[in-house]
Design goal:
alpha/beta, binds zinc ion, TIM Barrel, binds N-carbamoyl-L-aspartate, globular, 11 helices, 346 residues, 3-stranded antiparallel β-sheet
Length: 346
């Protein structure tokens, strides 16, 4: 038996949804994580400070008895977003970041941004007050191949934006490429990058070889193996630019196993055991705490958690639920395709 105790982790990119889905899946994150940056791509999206306050209340009401999970709220940036509303929501402590979805880039992003010029007043205010911008870093130009969309976003959107507004604090969400990891590493202290659990485990072959695997389909889509290995090097490096954002994104099975299947992997249930497995494989168990529990709070200027989480490795593989049964329908838990011997000791 082997074990490791780390400060309780946080999830710096999480989809909690709403209603019956929220009720069904929230315990899966609240079990292991102390806090999470909650994505605002509901229908309709969380746009104003008032929307975020109401959504936060719904999340807190959906928490299981005794859970201490703290949702850190974000606003969905639109071309109509009011800089003063953002500043007030940040000053009150309610909102911790604003999320940029290029219109059409992913699930529920049609209300996102088409023209960055239109949101510059908001971004300038955010730069002035130090409020981070979380970016879904993919261009949506139909001419750009889906596997190239992250690298092209860095060159044509992110890099010019950061040159124009150097004080703006930016998180590159769910990076999936060597280019993303290299850019984040060189980004100085105004830049961070989240990495998901699943992008450390699957490449595009897992998605496409031997039959299409809808539960491995997410956005940004998994890339070739060299990119997965670059993400592993980044996550396990201990470097402060990189921190965990699971992007756990539940969709009911009927919408994943569909002719036009939804994007999203649901990893809230087994992320910490999977990360222990990955970090052990990389000989970096001693750096798991930096990735999952220290680098994120440091970037967001929040204290690290004082409570601890213990992971234990047993001789026999640990069985995780295959699905979480919610009132909205069943949600398939991410299956890494190998036996996992780690589990969180409760
Ligand atoms: C996310 C979702 O379903 O909301 N899906 C995904 O594949 N990651 C949206 C997102 O973060 O892109
Ligand atoms: Zn996401």
């Amino acid at each position: 038996m082997q074990e490791i105790t780390i400060r309780r982790p946080d999830d710096w990119h999480l989809h909690l949804r709403d209603g019956a889905m929220l009720q069904g899946i929230l315990p899966e994150s609240a079990r292991d994580f102390a806090r999470a940056i909650v994505m605002p791509n509901l229908v309709p999206p969380v746009v104003t400070g008032a929307d975020a306050a109401a959504y936060r209340d719904r999340i807190l009401r959906a928490l299981p008895e005794g859970a201490t999970f703290e949702p850190l709220m974000t606003l969905y940036l639109t071309e109509g977003t009011d800089p003063a509303d953002v500043a007030a929501a940040a000053a009150s402590g309610l909102v911790k970041a604003v999320k940029l979805y290029p219109a059409g880039a992913t699930t529920n992003s049609h209300g996102g941004v088409r023209d960055l010029d239109k949101v510059m007043p908001v971004l300038e205010r955010m730069a002035a007050i130090g409020l981070p911008l979380c970016t879904h870093g993919e261009v949506t130009d139909p001419e750009v191949d889906i596997f190239d969309r992250e690298a092209v976003f860095i060159d044509t959107v992110l890099s010019p934006l950061r040159a124009r507004l150097p004080e703006l604090r930016v998180v590159m969400e769910h990076i999936t490429t060597e280019e993303g990891a290299a850019y984040a590493l060189e980004g100085g202290d105004t830049l961070g990058a989240t990495i998901t659990t699943h992008h450390l485990i699957i490449n595009r072959n897992h998605l496409l070889v031997g039959g299409i695997k809808p539960h491995y389909y997410c956005l940004p889509v998994a890339k070739r193996e060299a990119h997965r290995l670059a993400l592993r090097r980044a996550a396990t490096s201990g470097d402060g630019h990189f921190f965990l954002g699971t992007d756990s994104a539940p969709h009911v099975d009927a919408l994943k196993e569909h002719a036009c299947g939804c994007a999203g992997c649901f990893t809230a249930t087994n992320t910490m055991p999977l990360l222990a497995h990955v970090f052990e494989e990389e000989g970096a168990l001693d750096r798991l705490e930096a990735f999952a529990s220290l680098n994120g709070p440091a970037f967001y200027r929040l204290p690290a958690n004082e409570t601890r989480l213990r992971l234990v490795k047993s001789a026999a593989p640990h069985a995780f639920p295959e699905k979480i049964l919610t009132e909205a329908g069943p949600v398939t838990v991410f299956n890494p395709g190998f036996p996992v011997h780690w589990h969180v000791e409760s």
